[in-house]
Write a structure and sequence with these properties.
Elements (H helix, E strand, L loop, with lengths): L1 E5 L6 H12 L2 E4 L7 H10 L10 H24 L4 E4 L2 H12 L4 H12 L7 E5 L3 H14 L12 H16 L6 E4 L5 H14 L1
Parallel strand pairs: 1-3, 1-4, 2-3, 4-5
Enzyme class: transferase
Organism: Corynebacterium vitaeruminis DSM 20294
GO biological process, one term: dUDP biosynthetic process
Length: 206
């Protein structure tokens, strides 16, 4: 079963993924894979202002993030076929939400779908979990993380409060129409035990 964990920066994705790994024994892949993928590394450099005007193009940035996932496609598919629960910390919906927020145009969501799932053949998720943390709370978490760890300085996307607000709204729209798979939406006060029970149930069904 392939489960994608989604949400804006500071939403608490890593915290949830860590907890689920302990409970479910899942295999985890976190995107972007800045340590392993040249495409992700180029995107990261752009987000810190080191690639000229590359970040001006939402389509160029989305393509780099998509190619990062393409490189990991075989690993995702093999783990899923082996009967493992695969947890993805960010996935294709992240590209769809951020691109729609940047362009303020929902039509790019279809473009992302075609690029990633059809052209690049990236596996579709079986389930997507949205951490519906408010942009205000997420911003404070990201600031605290940055203050405590110099290596976690916020990039151009993370430091743009307006973009984060629009992205949160774009995520909510994707979840509402269950884009590509069923979605579970979690508020900040979610019950971890209940989440784990639900995921175990769905994994058995799938």
């Amino acid at each position: 079963m392939i489960i994608a964990i989604e949400g804006i920066d500071g939403a608490g994705k890593n915290t949830l993924v860590t907890a689920l790994v302990e409970r479910l024994g899942a295999e985890v892949i976190s995107f972007p894979r800045y340590k392993d993928s040249i495409h992700a590394q180029l995107a990261q450099a752009a987000l810190y202002g080191k690639m000229g005007d590359l970040t001006d193009s939402a389509y160029a940035m989305a393509t780099l993030f998509a190619l990062d996932r393409r490189e990991a496609s075989a690993q995702i598919s093999e783990a899923s076929r082996a009967g493992k629960v695969v947890l993805l910390d960010r996935y294709v919906a992240s590209n769809a939400a951020y691109s729609a927020a940047r362009l303020e145009d929902e039509s790019v969501v279809e473009w992302v779908e075609t690029l990633e799932f059809e052209t690049l053949g990236i596996p579709r998720p079986d389930l997507q979990i949205l951490l519906a943390t408010s942009p205000e709370l997420a911003r404070e978490r990201a600031k605290n993380r940055e203050a405590q760890d110099a290596s976690r300085a916020r990039d151009r996307y993370e430091s743009d409060d307006s973009l984060q607000q629009r992205t949160a709204a774009a995520y909510a729209r994707l979840a509402e129409r269950e884009w590509q798979s069923p979605w579970i939406v979690l508020d900040p006060g979610y019950d971890l035990d209940a989440v784990c029970e639900e995921l175990a149930r769905r994994a058995e069904v799938s």
